[in-house]
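Cross-posted from the bioinformatics board.
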Amino acid sequence: DGGITQSPKYLFRKEGQNVTLSCEQNLNHDAMYWYRQDPGQGLRLIYYSQIVNDFQKGDIAEGYSVSREKKESFPLTVTSAQKNPTAFYLCASSIVGGFENEQFFGPGTRLTVL
Amino acid sequence: GENVEQHPSTLSVQEGDSAVIKCTYSDSASNYFPWYKQELGKRPQLIIDIRSNVGEKKDQRIAVTLNKTAKHFSLHITETQPEDSAVYFCAASTPRNYGQNFVFGPGTRLSVLP
C-alpha cells in the first residue's frame, strides 16, 4: 500500500475556515488527481494535474483550489466557499496523464465540518 | 457531459455463483472503461479495464464486455469467493479538446455469502 500517502486521516474544521489536505507520492508519477466520495455516490473528480505547474478543473471544482509546484505533491485546499465540504477525499496518481492509465489511490482523508 | 449509470446498487450471491454488474454511459466518444474494487475501509484498486477497440477482456475469474453500439459495459465475476465482497465502481473516460473527462458510476456493493 505504499507509494501514495495522504494526511491527515481525519480532519475536523469549523465553518468558515479553509483547510488543506496533503497528498504525496514517491512513484515518480506525472499525473495526480483529487476525488470526493460521498455515501451512495461514485468518486467525483475535483481537480487533476497531468504535469508539474499545470492543473485542470474536474466536475466539482467550485470551492476547492490546488497547486502542483512539485511532482511529488498535490495539496488540496477546501475553502469556505465550498458549501458542503464534509466528505471522504481521495488522492490518486498515474504514471502519465490522460485517464487511460491505472490510477493508484491514497488511503483518503475524512473531512468533517463542525 | 458524460453520465455513467451502474446497476444494481447492491448484489448478493452465494459463494461459487457468478455476479454481473452493468454500466451504461452516455457519450459515444468515451474510449476507456476501467473497473475499480474498493474493499471496506481500503482504497480503490483497478481490477480490469477495457478500451473501445476491444469487445471483451478476461483475467482469470473476472471479465469485462463492451457493447459500443448500446453504450454499455459489464463486469462478470465467476466462481465468486467471500473475498470478492466489496464495492465495485465502473468509470468512463472521454477525450475532449482540452484534457479528458473521467466519470465514475455510483458503485455496486457485492456481498458473497458463504
